[in-house]
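Today's session is about reading a structure prediction critically. Students often jump straight to the picture, but the first step is always the sequence itself: look for stretches that repeat, for charged clusters, for runs of hydrophobic residues. Only then move on to the predicted structure, which in these notes is written as discrete structure tokens rather than atom positions. Here is the chain we will use throughout the hour.
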Amino acid sequence: MLKKVSAWVLLLVLHVGMAWLLIAGGKFLLEGPVRSETHTQQLWSGWEKADALLSSMLPGQENALRLRTQLSLIMGNEKIGDIYIHEERLLREPEVLDEAALTETAEILNAFYQKYTIPTCIAALPAAAEIYTDFLPDHVTAVSQLSQLETFYEAMDTKIRKVNAYHVLSTFKEDYIYYRTDSRWTSYGAYVLYRNLIRKMGYYPVPYDSYTITHVKNDFRGDLYEDCLYDAVTADVLDVYTCEDSSVIKSMQSYDGESWTERAFYNQEELEQGRAENFYMGEPQLLTEIQTDVGNNKRLLVLKDSAADCMLPFLTQHYTRIDVIDMDRLDRPVTELTDPVSYQQVLILCDGDTYQNTEAFLWLTEETESGGEKND
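Below is the predicted structure for this chain, in token form.
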């Protein structure tokens, strides 16, 4: 009996999908070929309405989401929610950035720099859709964040060293710099930007040929896949970069806001439990302290979001100590966590969406009674 009911439900959904295909495109089928951009946008809007109806009819369950995606594609809709589907990769539509918020964040960072006068380098990571515009549907003009990020850079103190990550990464767009099924960049993408950042910070980058690359997972499917369950795109590969004379991480501990725990940089257990997004650095933490065997006694403060995690192994080749603050979790004055004047350099590395969260960055300039003594 249950199988018969399920069959009838599936049949009903298929009929609804076909009905919406006619609703979305019937007018244009009667009128003949689409003759203008306006018609194309109207047809696209009709497909999106059909997709929204299917989404409301098929909530939550994995099989329902997969069916919704297949029906939407049958109907000619290459956008599922905010994800564009191409045979070679999935892309999330960038958000419209708040230019006023970005300017406010730039002013906060200027105040932080002027207060501590520590050599500072900054980069804003672009969304993959900014790099791979050729993979978007022909009739789509996706939101671009580039002009807002340029305004952000321009509002920054001229003494803060800036690296335009878009210009660096777009040069290597033919290489594997962003995952196909996840919104983040790959370890190679991180390496490409690292070479530019570390020069700005006064060091020579470790040559690419010095690294041995180990594939730790070759069937990774990330957040973009989870949002649409479209599995025709080739799965991704997670890599670890090591070199013969590389530095060694002597210790790593993280503070979640209440207590400290010893951590490992690479987390095989996360892979085995299906949380590959936490392979680098483990579950996100408020503050992480990394101690290496580099003998120069240089200390680096990194202000980052999750996008920067796979950059950190390259940075450990140059500093005795790296302290990492997750701006997505910063909820108290930074001086309650560490003393900024104890660092020789600061690196700020986040995506555009994070930089518009001014409330988090305000904690960089807030005063605290502890005066720089972290909570243990």
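Discussion point for the tutorial: The two ends are 61 Å apart (CA to CA).
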